[in-house]
Write a structure and sequence with these properties.
The complex is a heterodimer.
Chain A: E1 6-17, E2 24-35, E3 39-43, H1 50-57, E4 65-70, E5 73-74, H2 80-89, E6 91-94, H3 106-117, H4 121-134, H5 151-163, E7 169-173, H6 181-198, E8 201-206, H7 209-212, E9 217-222, E10 225-231
Helix pairs in contact in A: 3-4, 3-5, 4-5
Chain B: H1 3-16, H2 18-54, E1 60-65, H3 87-96, E2 100-115, E3 118-127, H4 131-134, E4 139-142, H5 147-151, E5 156-159, H6 161-167, E6 178-181, E7 184-192, E8 206-210, H7 211-219, E9 226-231, H8 237-251, E10 262-266, H9 267-310, H10 312-320, H11 325-360, H12 370-396, H13 400-405
The chains are: A alpha/beta, B alpha+beta.
The complex binds adenosine-5'-triphosphate (ATP) and magnesium ion.
The site of magnesium ion has 4 residues of chain A, from helix 1.
Chain lengths: ~240, ~400
């Protein structure tokens, strides 16, 4: 049995895309533990396998080999429906390319995970409101269709959607890539607050050392291997709203 | 997902791409409505053919001069050309064949008929008092030819409503007036009721005169062109037909039935033949309609398949935020069901409307059958559901990342 403080643990995880001559190994044996309440930044050059790793951590994709325990459960042994439950109940995922439903309003997009959770409609709406406000989207945009929003606004909707089901693990793949530095700081502040005040475990991918500074621990990846895994000493002062 | 959520998702999906939804619906609507309308036309035509055959009389056997031709459907074969039937044959049938209700001989000639100022070319039929009974016609005004008219070889005439309209004008009462047939004046004594119907030998466009007058003034002999025999009931028809045949063979001194110089046609045979023709016609129409349903169906398949392919990313996203496989497949099923059912309903309504209009405009009688509605609806619903549902199920079983990356 894993101690409960171990939020997740991966061991010798590999991921190979394709097969035969076209096979490409994006992860070549990655292992680490992440404890509950940690704020981890994953860094590395483009194509190093960060998103691939993140998809596995988010139970969106399965590793080719190796094991992945999430809160003591072996994710690689779960079936499709159980994976859906994990994604819905435990994980909030912010994609690198913001995937919103184009024909739905911002509010509807944020409400969607709650729709699948069968939360009652009034509660859905109020929780979606709270999440959108927390993600910093102006209330006048709540009823805009998502394809009528700017990149930054879309990003905030995506973050709100990841937060709305109160996940214990938040995964964000370059959440500030499309934001100006000020909005980026606000968003990171939101993550930090979720981490420090609500005890949420957060894993964040970024290219920018600046942003990584917000994390308590930084994992460097290159060519599908971990280069370094170090606590962040020069941690920035906790940002407060 | 609750029913309400599914409804909302379906509604958004269907309304967000109106052109595609519209085209898909159009395919189903055309398919369904054409099947319904075409089979309705076929069934209606079949019915009206039967009705018009029924209107020429009931339990009728028609004897015509000329050679027997196979089972002999050709009602008018040799009519008037061969001179083998005499008035005495008709009298013999009436007196010697059992189960005969009435016999009406016909001597038909085509003549130019004139009234003051106008003329028309019609069939003039010499017959007896039994004719209205045997051939199912009614008298609107006046009376039909009586036995006294025949015995007196009187120059009296009963005219059809079309003849009245042509010679005297509609809504006139020409009783007592005279019409001139081949230079002889005939007094109008009655007008028959409109029967409708058209085409060859409409009974509305005929003049009836006593058979004795027809023979005396126009034919000059005792030959007749047709003998109409009404049997007592449906069951004795064949028997009566056989008896007439043997009686006439006997009278004409012919021992080999294949050499008969007359032919008999039984109304039931005419009905059967005409029905089978109409049925062939219905099958043909149904085949054409079936093809359009098939084409419509392929349209639905195509639309559904492209929709699902295009929406694989959306499926991936929904799964990524926690949708179960069954949530996805249920959503797409609901979409397919809603699409096919709403357009199916419109299609059924349109098909019915087309049939109604065709009847209303008097083009042809139609009759919408429940079976065609069920079939058309069933086929399109099935196609819509299978091709909407299964690709969606397949897409729903991809893992979210594969689905999200799908191009
Ligand atoms: N579905 C796939 N099929 C084949 N190769 C893939 C697939 N997805 C990713 N790869 C490859 O795996 C490698 C790692 O990709 P990944 O998306 O994890 O990179 P990344 O570290 O997130 O890069 P970036 O910082 O640019 O987002 C890349 O070389 C990419 O080409
Ligand atoms: Mg990436």
């Amino acid at each position: 049995m894993k101690p409960i403080s171990d939020m997740l643990e991966i061991k010798n995880v590999t991921k190979t895309y394709g097969s035969g001559n076209a096979a490409f190994t994006a992860l070549c044996g990655v292992s680490f533990d992440i404890h509950e309440g940690e704020f981890v930044a994953i860094m590395g050059p483009s194509g190093s396998g960060k998103s691939t790793l993140m998809h596995i951590l988010g139970a969106l994709d399965t590793p080719t080999s190796g094991s992945y325990f999430l809160e003591g459960k072996d994710v690689s042994k779960l079936n499709d429906n159980e994976l859906a439950d994990i994604r819905r109940e435990k994980i909030g995922f912010v994609f690198q390319a913001f995937n919103l439903l184009p024909r739905a309003t911002a509010l509807r997009n944020v409400m969607l995970p709650l729709v699948y959770e069968e939360t009652n409609p009034e509660e859905r709406e109020s929780r979606a409101y709270t999440a959108l406000k927390a993600a910093g989207l102006g209330e006048e945009y709540f009823s805009h269709l998502s394809n009528q929003l700017s990149g930054g606004q879309i990003q905030r909707v995506a973050i709100a959607r990841a937060l709305v089901n109160n996940p214990s693990l938040i995964l964000a793949d370059e959440p500030t890539g499309n934001l100006d530095s000020k909005t980026g700081e606000i968003v990171l502040g939101t993550f930090q607050e979720l981490n420090t005040q609500h005890g949420r475990t957060i894993i964040l991918i970024t290219h920018e050392p600046d942003i990584a500074e917000y994390a308590k621990r930084i994992i460097h990846i290159k060519d599908g291997l971990i280069l370094s895994d170090t606590p962040n000493i020069s941690k920035k002062v906790t940002y407060s709203l | 997902m609750t029913a309400n959520d599914i409804f909302q998702e379906t509604y958004t999906a269907l309304t967000s791409n109106k052109t595609r939804t519209g085209l898909t619906m159009l395919g189903i609507i055309i398919g369904i409505s054409s099947v319904i309308a075409m089979t309705a036309i076929g069934a209606g035509a079949q019915r009206s053919i039967q009705a018009s055959i029924q209107s020429i009389g009931s339990n009728l056997i028609i004897v015509t001069p000329g050679a027997q031709r196979g089972p002999g459907y050709q009602i008018s074969a040799g009519r008037g050309s061969a001179r083998t039937l005499r008035l005495e044959d008709a009298d013999a049938i009436a007196s010697q064949v059992a189960s005969v209700k009435a016999v009406a001989p016909e001597l038909s000639i085509r003549e130019q008929v004139t009234a003051p100022g106008t003329n028309t070319n019609v069939s003039v039929i010499g017959t007896n008092a039994n004719y209205p009974d045997v051939r199912n016609i009614q008298i609107d005004n006046g009376y039909f030819i009586t036995d006294a008219n025949i015995q007196g070889i009187q120059k009296v005439a009963v005219i059809g409503p079309t003849v009245r309209d042509d010679l005297f004008g509609p809504d006139t009462n020409p009783i007592g007036q005279t019409i001139r047939i081949k230079g002889l004046d005939f007094k109008v004594i009655g007008i028959t009721t409109t029967k409708g119907g058209s085409g060859f030998n409409s009974q509305d466009n005929m003049i009836f005169i006593p058979i004795s007058s027809a023979q005396r003034f126009f034919a000059g002999d005792t030959y007749v062109t047709t003998i109409d025999v009404e049997a007592e009931n449906q069951q004795v028809m064949t028997q009566v037909q056989d008896d007439i045949t043997s009686l006439l063979l006997d009278r004409h001194k012919i021992s080999d039935p294949t050499m008969a110089d007359f032919s008999t046609v039984n109304q039931a045979d005419i009905v059967a033949t005409a029905s089978s023709v109409a049925q062939t016609f219905t099958i043909l129409l149904a085949a054409v309609a079936g093809i359009s349903l098939l084409v419509g169906g392929i349209g639905i398949m195509n639309m559904m398949l492209t929709t699902v392919t295009e929406r694989t990313r959306e499926i991936g996203l929904r799964k990524a935020i926690g949708a179960k496989k069954k949530d996805i497949s249920f959503q797409f099923l609901a979409e397919a069901v809603m699409l096919t059912f709403s357009s199916g309903t419109i299609g059924v309504f349109l098909g019915w409307l087309i049939s109604f209009l065709i009847t209303y405009l008097g083009i042809i009688q139609t009759s919408v059958s429940f079976f065609s509605v069920l079939l058309a609806f069933g086929v399109s619903a099935l196609i819509g559901i299978i091709f909407g549902y299964y690709p969606a199920c397949r897409a729903a079983s991809l893992n979210p990342i594969e689905a999200l990356r799908y191009e």
